[in-house]
């Protein structure tokens, strides 16, 4: 065989082994890839929690959270906390596309995403805003 063909086959073998290793890891431990709120997050049998701090000034009265995606397995729970107390909570599973609004006052909040056995893709986006009554 020619050296260029052997080199290509060796590269292909390395890629296949890397993919199998990634699959084995995801099946055994779970995997999450992505960066909210800018990119969608892909989950594979993932159980875990992510927390993001949100500072709200006196001008805002609602934290608006857009959640869209599809979970083939598991569920997603979204909660907004202030000083350790829950202000609001929603749970998602299956296919969803919702805009959730949590009432807020000025202060520091914690936005928590908790996943249990999640497999699928989710896109998150949030903003504090003022709405007319």
Please characterize this protein's 3D structure.
By secondary structure, this protein is an alpha+beta fold. Helices cover 20% and strands 62% of the residues. A five-stranded antiparallel sheet has the order 1-2-5-3-4. The chain is elongated and about 70 Å long. The model has no long low-confidence stretch (mean pLDDT 86).
Write the layout of secondary structure elements.
Elements: H1 3-29, E1 31-33, E2 41-56, E3 62-82, E4 85-103, E5 107-129
Antiparallel strand pairs: 1-2, 2-5, 3-4, 3-5
Q: What structural keywords apply?
A:
133 residues; 5 strands; single chain; Jelly Rolls; five-stranded antiparallel beta sheet; alpha+beta
- Residue-averaged pLDDT, rounded? 86
List the domain count as a whole number. Answer: 2
Spatial strand sequence of the major β-sheet? 1-2-5-3-4
Radius of gyration: 20 Å
Which secondary-structure class do the elements indicate? alpha+beta
Quantity of strands, as a count: 5
CATH class of the largest domain: Mainly Beta
Please give the largest β-sheet. Answer: 5 strands, antiparallel
**What is the fold named in CATH at topology level of the largest domain?**
Jelly Rolls
- Percent helix among the residues? 10-25%
CATH-defined architecture of the largest domain: Sandwich
| The CATH fourth-level homologous superfamily of the largest domain | GOLD domain
Share of β-strand residues: over 45%
Overall 3D shape: elongated
Oligomeric assembly:
single chain
């Amino acid at each position: 065989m020619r050296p260029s063909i052997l080199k290509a086959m060796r590269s292909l073998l390395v890629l296949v082994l890397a993919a199998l290793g990634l699959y084995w890891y995801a099946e055994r431990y779970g995997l999450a890839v992505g960066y909210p709120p800018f990119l969608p997050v892909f989950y594979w049998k993932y159980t875990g929690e992510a927390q993001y701090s949100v500072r709200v000034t006196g001008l805002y009265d609602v934290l608006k959270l857009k959640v869209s995606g599809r979970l083939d397995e598991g569920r997603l729970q979204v909660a907004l906390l202030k000083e350790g107390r829950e202000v609001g909570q929603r749970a998602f599973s299956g296919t969803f596309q919702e805009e959730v609004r949590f009432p807020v006052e000025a202060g520091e909040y914690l936005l928590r995403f908790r996943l249990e056995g999640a497999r699928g893709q989710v896109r998150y986006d949030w903003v504090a805003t003022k709405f007319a009554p």
